[in-house]
């Protein structure tokens, strides 16, 4: 068996990022990966404008103002936001102005309303600003037209959408979404709506993995349940390999008489790169490459917790790289105080599921209550993190520090 670090590196080396792109609207861009450098022909701010409700003035007019010796200026214009000022300020004059409104020609300073008194068409300036340009947002201060605004390979979330909208990018070039085929294998499996006969079990993996794939911005292609029958499996596996960038099948990767996946992958011409990792849960994870069409096949263990932990630890970085993200592929770990004693045999990198919480300015890991068994998916709900004991560590006492992987979705 290979180590988790070796497996991670084999998997990431195997993955070629998607190159195909498509043009989509800004409205549809949430969760997509930008495929081009975005530049704008507009400066930002677009023009000099006011940061306060108040008066636009010439600094030299008001530089000596105090409550005892105020400056009185004539108000020549009112400039709400969205209006193009019509008048140029001369010495001794002010324009009434509001937050976000364009500065009139001749003005270089804003006096906030609280430091003034209005008398008919005059304003009394009661205090001096520190310097010219006070409360002026200068054109191009945040961004100059033509320079790079956003780089390819970034994930588009609310902040990026704000930037794209302000740059008037109504259409955007993004990488196409990865296609991930999902199939569940096992004679014992039924769908959540089928009545359960003795010995059967509901296929939870199909739904959990589809949700996981969607959360990563990829397209899940649910191919359903396939019985432990070599011919049917072979056909479904072929279909999966031909329709997707990645295949995630669950079950049939251990050593039982009905565990056919590895044998069938060889028959299909796949090159088996991983067939067992020193990790728990998830030991029998099998990773296979198909050279003829770039497809990567993940034979994921059937136990429901093993399936999700394998996805979080090994498939997630691979989908991130595949999707065109330029960085941020790897799982994220931080140190946290363990609220329970964690025990492992020390022979495999061991993952425990539970919740990471910020308590009084430090992170704590709360183990999911009940049995930590790879067949017990019942206590998975609420899981947002995995505590990890490396090979060689057999015990973390309650109150001691443990490494916690927190990008668990
Ligand atoms: N002699 C050995 N037996 C097992 C070993 C071993 O090293 N030697 N490893 C164990 C470990 S660890 C795991 S993990 C499992 C992996 O099993 P498979 O990937 O072959 O999966 P199955 O045998 O098909 O099923 C295992 C388990 O999971 C349930 N299951 C399967 N598919 C689903 C699904 N879609 N939704 C929900 N639950 C599912 C299935 O009913 C079994 O209970 O092997 C151990 N055995
Ligand atoms: O490794 Mo299995 O994945 O522990 O249950
Ligand atoms: Mg099995």
UniProtKB/TrEMBL annotation:
What range(s) does the MoaB/Mog domain occupy? 181-321
Named from the GO MF annotations, one term is: molybdopterin molybdotransferase activity
| TM segment ranges | none
A Pfam family found in this protein is MoeA_C
Q: Which InterPro entries match?
A: MoaB/Mog-like_dom_sf, MoaB/Mog_dom, MoeA-like, MoeA_C_domain_IV, MoeA_C_domain_IV_sf, MoeA_linker/N, MoeA_linker/N_sf
First-level EC class: transferase
What name is this protein filed under? Molybdopterin molybdenumtransferase
**Which species is listed as the source?**
Rippkaea orientalis (strain PCC 8801 / RF-1) (Cyanothece sp. (strain PCC 8801))
Record lineage: Bacteria, Bacillati, Cyanobacteriota, Cyanophyceae, Oscillatoriophycideae
């Amino acid at each position: 068996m290979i180590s988790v670090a070796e497996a991670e590196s084999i998997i990431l080396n195997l993955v070629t990022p998607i190159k195909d792109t498509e043009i989509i609207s800004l409205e549809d861009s949430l969760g997509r990966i930008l495929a081009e450098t975005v530049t704008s022909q507009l400066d930002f701010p677009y023009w000099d404008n006011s940061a306060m409700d108040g008066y636009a003035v010439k600094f030299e007019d008001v530089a000596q103002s105090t409550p005892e010796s105020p400056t009185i200026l004539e108000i020549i214009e009112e400039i709400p936001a969205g209006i193009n000022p019509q008048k140029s300020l001369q010495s001794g004059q002010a324009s009434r102005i509001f937050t976000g409104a364009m500065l009139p020609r001749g003005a270089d300073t804003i006096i906030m309303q609280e430091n003034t008194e209005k008398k008919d068409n005059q304003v009394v300036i009661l205090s001096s600003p520190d310097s010219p340009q006070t409360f002026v947002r200068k054109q191009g201060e945040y961004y100059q037209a033509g320079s790079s605004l956003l780089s390819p390979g970034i994930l588009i979330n609310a902040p990026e959408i704000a930037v794209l909208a302000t740059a008037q990018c109504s259409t955007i070039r993004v990488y196409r979404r990865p296609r991930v085929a999902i199939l569940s294998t096992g004679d014992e499996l039924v769908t959540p709506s089928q009545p359960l006969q003795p010995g059967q079990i509901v296929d939870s993996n199909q739904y959990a993995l589809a949700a996981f794939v969607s959360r990563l911005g990829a397209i899940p292609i649910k191919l359903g349940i396939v019985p432990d029958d070599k011919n049917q499996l072979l056909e479904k596996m072929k279909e999966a390999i031909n329709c997707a960038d990645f295949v995630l099948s669950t079950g049939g990767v251990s050593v039982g008489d009905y565990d056919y996946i590895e044998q069938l992958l060889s028959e299909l011409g796949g090159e088996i790169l991983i067939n067992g990792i020193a990790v728990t849960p998830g030991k029998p994870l099998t990773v296979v490459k198909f050279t003829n069409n770039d497809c990567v096949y993940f034979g994921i263990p059937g136990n429901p917790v093993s399936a999700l932990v394998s996805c979080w630890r090994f498939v997630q970085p691979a989908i991130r790289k595949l999707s065109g993200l330029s960085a941020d592929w790897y799982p994220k770990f931080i140190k946290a105080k363990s609220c329970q004693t964690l025990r492992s045999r020390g022979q495999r990198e061991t993952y425990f599921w539970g919740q990471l919480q910020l308590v009084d300015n430090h992170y704590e890991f709360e183990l999911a209550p009940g049995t930590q068994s790879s067949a017990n998916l019942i206590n998975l709900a609420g899981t947002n993190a995995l505590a990890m004991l490396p090979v060689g560590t057999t015990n973390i006492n309650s109150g001691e520090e443990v490494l916690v992987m927190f990008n668990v979705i």
